[in-house]
């Protein structure tokens, strides 16, 4: 592992804005000018962003390929199409969302105006992560624009080609005063965090999430934290001198009622897309011993069908982002016994899709974030056992359940806590606009997507409007002194 891979390569992006104060001051003035309150202005910015995605689709795909060797089809599904649909959805609903809400009134307020105004917070900071370097930054940014905020965009420096694209291209489409891009690594991020923002939206590791939360706390800045929520690797624990006992997320239970071939395909796709570097990738499988044997046989067959005899030669599998993570994953592969895969090649940061069995609950693979193409299986007797296992750990970001039995499903719905659930599929809950996406407990706080994103970046300003007519005043007069028992019984 070279030094340049462990230290954030801020200089690689070449586009660091040195003067944060100045940039922020300009964003503050732009917000104060009121231009982002204008819904036509917001609409125009969103349309420009959509045009940017359309006009630069090939560049986006190339940047993702350069950073992650991501296949084009995956980038289309999980990045560009997703971002385009997100903006189209916002544009379609924006006029409705911005309207003041008129909640139902009680008898006491019959004569009054009771309204909730959708106010922007002001200048917000959105910090993205490297694994989906475009959409994890730009989907919350679009929601913040829709809600009328100015936004400082901070892409992840680890996906350096995507960061360069964002810093060079996005400013050509968005108002530069309102939506500046700031690049850099931890140093620049910490400098940014020392400034006062009106809202901070962070996606990344739980370790940095705690840094962000502590910085936000100084100014009582509200935050949304979209986290991994897993235990730190031992090296990080030493480096930061903290001991966080956080556990593995997005478990996947399979019962005997499922059509196994389909289940295996959906689980493996969710695990292997972006080479397993997905916060909602299924982490580990919980199933019976009998199911485990059948799963492994099917998985071998499916992998051959998808990637051929020599998986390394297949163009359809991404690579691990850097040597740091590659070496970490090799360490995790030492847990349990390899039932499928196990090959690797450091020169390409290639790791074969690998299934591990005979793992123990306290093995590193079962306690640390995997973020790679390795799938451990842990056998349980039944759904009750699986629920007990899940509940002995922190709340998952997503809980995957594969079953055809509604009774089994209900046991999980009512007996577990998680950010979300997805039944008989993986990942596909993520792009559903109608569903809030977010974690609970150590997997995060707050949610977004669709209207939930708009609401996240909106302060709900309540307003009671009275008139000064005599009738109303007469009804209200009981509140004025001199107080008396007769008045209080009114
Ligand atoms: P990362 O290294 O790209 O860091 C994320 C951001 O934090 C970057 O912008 C980076 O500059 C900044 N940063 C890094 N170290 C910092 C420090 N010491 N101080 C201040 N800022 C710092 O990404 P990552 O953290 O490796 O991302 C992967 C993690 O993100 C995984 O844990 C994954 O589970 C999680 N994740 C969660 C979601 C979700 O929606 N819940 C989505 C994707 C990724």
From TrEMBL:
<protein>
    <submittedName>
        <fullName>Aldh-III</fullName>
    </submittedName>
</protein>
<dbReference type="GO" id="GO:0004029">
    <property type="term" value="F:aldehyde dehydrogenase (NAD+) activity"/>
</dbReference>
<dbReference type="GO" id="GO:0006081">
    <property type="term" value="P:aldehyde metabolic process"/>
</dbReference>
<dbReference type="InterPro" id="IPR015590">
    <property type="entry name" value="Aldehyde_DH_dom"/>
</dbReference>
<dbReference type="InterPro" id="IPR016160">
    <property type="entry name" value="Ald_DH_CS_CYS"/>
</dbReference>
<dbReference type="InterPro" id="IPR012394">
    <property type="entry name" value="Aldehyde_DH_NAD(P)"/>
</dbReference>
<keyword id="KW-0812">Transmembrane</keyword>
<keyword id="KW-0472">Membrane</keyword>
<feature type="domain" description="Aldehyde dehydrogenase">
    <location>
        <begin position="17"/>
        <end position="230"/>
    </location>
</feature>
<dbReference type="Pfam" id="PF00171">
    <property type="entry name" value="Aldedh"/>
</dbReference>
<dbReference type="InterPro" id="IPR016163">
    <property type="entry name" value="Ald_DH_C"/>
</dbReference>
<dbReference type="InterPro" id="IPR016162">
    <property type="entry name" value="Ald_DH_N"/>
</dbReference>
<dbReference type="InterPro" id="IPR016161">
    <property type="entry name" value="Ald_DH/histidinol_DH"/>
</dbReference>
<keyword id="KW-1133">Transmembrane helix</keyword>
<keyword id="KW-0560">Oxidoreductase</keyword>
<feature type="domain" description="Aldehyde dehydrogenase">
    <location>
        <begin position="250"/>
        <end position="462"/>
    </location>
</feature>
<comment type="similarity">
    <text>Belongs to the aldehyde dehydrogenase family.</text>
</comment>
<dbReference type="GO" id="GO:0005737">
    <property type="term" value="C:cytoplasm"/>
</dbReference>
<keyword id="KW-0520">NAD</keyword>
């Amino acid at each position: 592992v070279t030094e340049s891979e462990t230290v954030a390569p801020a200089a690689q992006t070449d586009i660091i804005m040195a003067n944060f104060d100045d940039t922020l001051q300009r964003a503050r003035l732009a917000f104060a000018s009121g231009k982002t309150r204008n819904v036509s202005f917001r609409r125009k910015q969103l349309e420009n962003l959509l045009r940017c995605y359309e006009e630069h689709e090939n560049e986006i795909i190339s940047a993702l390929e350069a950073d992650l060797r991501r296949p084009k089809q995956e980038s289309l599904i999980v990045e560009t199409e997703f971002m385009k649909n997100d903006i189209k959805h916002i544009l379609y609903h924006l006029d409705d969302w911005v309207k003041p809400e008129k909640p139902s009134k009680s008898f006491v307020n019959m004569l009054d105006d009771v309204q909730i105004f959708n106010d922007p917070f002001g200048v917000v900071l959105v910090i993205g992560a490297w694994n989906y370097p475009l959409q994890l930054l730009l989907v919350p940014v679009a929601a913040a624009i829709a809600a009328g905020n100015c936004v400082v965009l901070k892409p992840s420096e680890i996906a350096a080609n995507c960061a360069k694209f964002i810093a060079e291209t996005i400013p050509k489409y968005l108002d530069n005063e309102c939506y500046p891009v700031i690049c850099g690594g931890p140093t620049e991020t910490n400098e940014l965090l020392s400034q006062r923002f009106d809202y901070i939206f962070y996606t990344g590791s739980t370790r940095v999430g705690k840094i962000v939360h502590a910085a936000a706390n100084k100014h009582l800045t509200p935050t949304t934290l979209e986290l991994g929520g897993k235990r730190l690797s031992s090296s990080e624990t030493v480096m930061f001198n903290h001991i966080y006992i956080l556990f593995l997320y997005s478990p996947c239970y399979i019962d005997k009622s499922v059509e196994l071939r389909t289940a295996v395909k959906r689980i493996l796709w969710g695990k292997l897309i972006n080479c397993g570097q997905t916060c909602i990738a299924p982490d580990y499988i919980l199933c019976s011993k009998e199911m485990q044997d059948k799963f492994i046989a099917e998985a071998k067959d499916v992998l051959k069908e998808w990637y051929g005899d020599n998986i390394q030669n297949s163009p359809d599998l991404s690579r691990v982002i850097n040597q740091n993570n590659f070496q970490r994953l090799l360490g995790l592969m030492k847990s349990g016994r390899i039932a499928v895969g196990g090959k690797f090649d450091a020169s390409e940061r290639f790791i074969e899709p690998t299934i591990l069995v005979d793992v123990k609950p306290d093995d590193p693979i079962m306690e640390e974030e995997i973020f790679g193409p390795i799938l451990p299986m842990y056998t349980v007797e039944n759904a009750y056992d699986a629920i007990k296992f899940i509940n002995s750990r922190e709340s998952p970001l997503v809980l995957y359940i594969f079953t055809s039995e509604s009774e089994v499903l209900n046991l999980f719905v009512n007996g577990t806590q998680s950010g979300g659930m997805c039944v008989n599929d993986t990942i596909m809950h993520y792009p559903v606009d109608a569903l809030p996406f977010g974690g609970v407990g150590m997997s995060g706080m707050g949610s977004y997507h669709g209207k939930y994103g708009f609401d996240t970046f909106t302060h709900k300003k309540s307003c009671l409007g009275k008139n000064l007519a005599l009738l109303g005043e007469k009804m209200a007069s009981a509140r004025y002194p001199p107080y008396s028992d007769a008045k209080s019984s009114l």
